[in-house]
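Fold it.
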Amino acid sequence: MLSSKGDGQAAVPVVNMRRNRMARCRQAAWLLYHVGIDASVLLFADEVDMDGLIMNQRVSLLVVGQDVLKSKAEVSSVCTILTNTYCEYAYSLLQSLDIKKLLLAGILLDTSNLSKKCTNRDSEAVQLLLFGASERMRHELFQQLMLDHNDHSFVEYLKNTYRSSTTDDNDESPPEQKRSTSASGSSQDAKKSNSTNQRTTRGSGRKTADEASRGKNNFFLAKWFGFGRK
C-alpha cells in the first residue's frame, strides 16, 4: 500500500488476511517469532479502512503475491523474485541476516527444501542467500520450519499477538447466539410435540389402554428427537 504523505509517498506493507487467521499459519508465525519481529506492529487487512482510503484518493495499491509475480512458471517461490529484486534495486537490504532468513525460509517451504518443483532461479537465489554460510544451515532451517511448534511460550505468543479465536471465520455467529438459536429451536419443537400430543389425546378417548400406551410411547420418542405426527 502506498500512502500519500505531502508531496511524497510512504510504502506501508499490509498482510492480506485477517489478523486472527495468522494463528493458523504456524510456519509463518513461528518464523516471525524466531527472527524476533514484533508482529504486533504489522498491519493486517482487517485493520485498514481500505475503502475509505481509496474513496478519498489517499492510497494506491501494489499487489505482491504468488499468482501476480509467477506468470510464466519461471520460479516456484515468490521469495525468489523478491531476492532478485533486492539484488538489483536494494542490495543493502540483503545485508540483514533476518531478511535473508525470511526469504530463504519462503523458498524452502515453497520448494520443499529444493526438492519439489524447484527451478534454477530458485536454486541460485538460495545460494545467494546462503553466501558465507554452510549448506547445513539450509537443512536445519527447513527442519525447524516443519516442526509442530507446540511449545508453551510460542502458543502463548500466538494467542496474545494474533488474538486467536476458536470460532470458524466462516461462521460469524457468536457462540452465545448459536446456543440461543438452538434453545429456541428446541423450545419450538417441544411446543409442536405438546400440541400434537393434545390433539392425539382428544381424538383417541375411545381407544383401548394398549393403544393409548403405544401412543404415549410414540410421543415420548417424538419429544426427544424433535418430531411428531403432522
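The chain has ten helices and five strands.
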